[in-house]
């Protein structure tokens, strides 16, 4: 029986179950993410088989992928790659059903682009670890049950070699989550303060000292997760601005028209580039062009949202709401143009700044010489802070 | 949905054309040739058309190879890379597209083999989707008037001349032609004058001209992609080997970031140019938008690439003894050819309903 038929049969047989039970049963049947191993929500199939399964499950209880994006996109691939059999068994099911939300505890006030500079310390204590430090830019920390934590375990080793990767129980004593209010007025993110948090060694992912390698797995999946969907013409911000242009003839000027058309062309070029990339992936030959997608997206969203505010004139001076909200996902279309303009400023910072992405393209794709590094073979504790 | 990849045949075709051009049209040879004051490189043209590339878009029953504009676009990418001084865009694309649309079969067989070259007698800046102003009139089958800035107009064996009544074919010997000192010497222009020149009508109406402009502009984007790629490759290779202050200049972020941005733009140009070529090959209803987007985008990318190529090469890039200027001149004149980016944006404003 093919997998789509199996999925349809499953849906028939489990109709009417409460949401959580339905999702757990779907996971146990291997129909959650079919490319995962059997017994862990999958059937060891090709990634491509998933779309037929998703079609069959349309209209059934959802695990709200928008709410558990970090779990699906980063935690799951990391647990699969670095976790023990016991850890995979323990974490993946509740991760996929959405019963346990995951967050990512990587960035720190002193470790942004230079992520390998993390200063949060994990010190051995009997059969566990004691963790102290501060993390920042943590989406969903206030709703999360688990956090992907990178901490320094050996300050005497050079920076990349002295880190270890853990899953942190966000309900453990000593974990304090505070909202981090951003320039839009809301708080999508958090600061997480860790004070003498006790962590069992069984929650370590990968070997002691191997944290950088494990973190790289997580980050590679983060970049894949951003910007992969198929878009129609005028999908996204360009559609909003073009719509305003069509509905409001009184706002039009020749200079704004040319600015809009330039961005319309850029948006279309970005859309076709995405199409070409997906076509390459479909024939199993993904090119390096993917690393440019986020760069183009960030620039385009900033320029478009800036143009929208200018186009609106007096209305552009108004804002919708400065109250500190706690949204669980970014909603660019549901808010005012001013919000879009401000929120878009984050697009060239979050998930790797545009400057770091240019370095990566220049060095890994174009083969240009790397930066001169003064921090590579020096013990982390001796680096200037 | 448009196919934006290259299939196996297209990849093989690219390999063969590149090998030929690397051998027969290295930049030193192109530069030398531009100083000879010849209208086009006949020996290069004969070699190139010997590979059947001029026949690609012509159906087999009309003496062609029965491929499509997609394969033709791949040839243009390679010709852009090498800045080869051959009348491929003018004869094998513009004139051929006009005759295919006119359903006139008298010349296609010879155009396919390259033994005949033809040029559309229009200023090279003429854009698709814009009202064309005729400067030649016909009195029965006699043509009078002038056309300026016709690309490869000096060497064409046959001129296809639009008048208000249709499209006419005139033998090269019946036209008074003046060579123009051209910005891009690899694609020289000529001013044409007709004084009751004997002509043969090949079509009634504007359709062949409109179709030719659309195909020409859409495929020029592939030539521009080739120019941009060559500029990028050359510049990357240079900054890796050029040392200043004891380091390769390519190790400085000021240069790395510019090249990373350029590489990203070239990747986009490829998707956009392939979309236009595929739409033209499949007669997709999206052709007008695809062509306007391709020209607005790829013109700018090729120009940016050529300008960065000059700047990032520093002093050597400003000299006659370096290929950068050949690419710069081609990129700048190609950005004006068949409609500037701004004229294509104006056309687009109507097509996608973003009026003033």
Automatic annotation (TrEMBL), chain A:
Lineage: Bacteria, Bacillati, Actinomycetota, Actinomycetes, Streptosporangiales
Keywords, alphabetical: FAD, Flavoprotein, Oxidoreductase
Domain named Acyl-CoA oxidase/dehydrogenase middle: residues: 103-197
Full protein name: Acyl-CoA dehydrogenase family protein
Names of the cofactor(s): FAD
Domain Acyl-CoA dehydrogenase/oxidase C-terminal: start-end pairs: 209-366
The family this protein is said to belong to: Belongs to the acyl-CoA dehydrogenase family.
Alphabetized InterPro entries for the sequence: Acyl-CoA_Oxase/DH_mid-dom, Acyl-CoA_Oxase/DH_mid-dom_sf, AcylCo_DH-like_C, AcylCo_DH/oxidase_C, AcylCoA_DH/ox_N, AcylCoA_DH/ox_N_sf, AcylCoA_DH/oxidase_NM_dom_sf, Mycobact_Acyl-CoA_DH
The Acyl-CoA dehydrogenase/oxidase N-terminal domain, residue ranges: 7-99
From TrEMBL, chain B:
Cofactor(s) recorded in Swiss-Prot or TrEMBL: FAD
Domain annotation Acyl-CoA dehydrogenase/oxidase C-terminal: ranges: 212-350
Record keywords, A-Z: FAD, Flavoprotein, Oxidoreductase
Coiled-coil parts of chain: none
Top-rank taxon, per record: Bacteria
A Pfam family hit: Acyl-CoA_dh_1
Domain Acyl-CoA dehydrogenase/oxidase N-terminal: 8-96
Family recorded in the similarity comment: Belongs to the acyl-CoA dehydrogenase family.
PANTHER family reported in the protein's UniProt record: ACYL-COA DEHYDROGENASE, ACYL-COA DEHYDROGENASE FADE28
UniProt-recorded name of the protein: Acyl-CoA dehydrogenase family protein
Naturally occurring in which organism (per UniProt): Actinocorallia longicatena
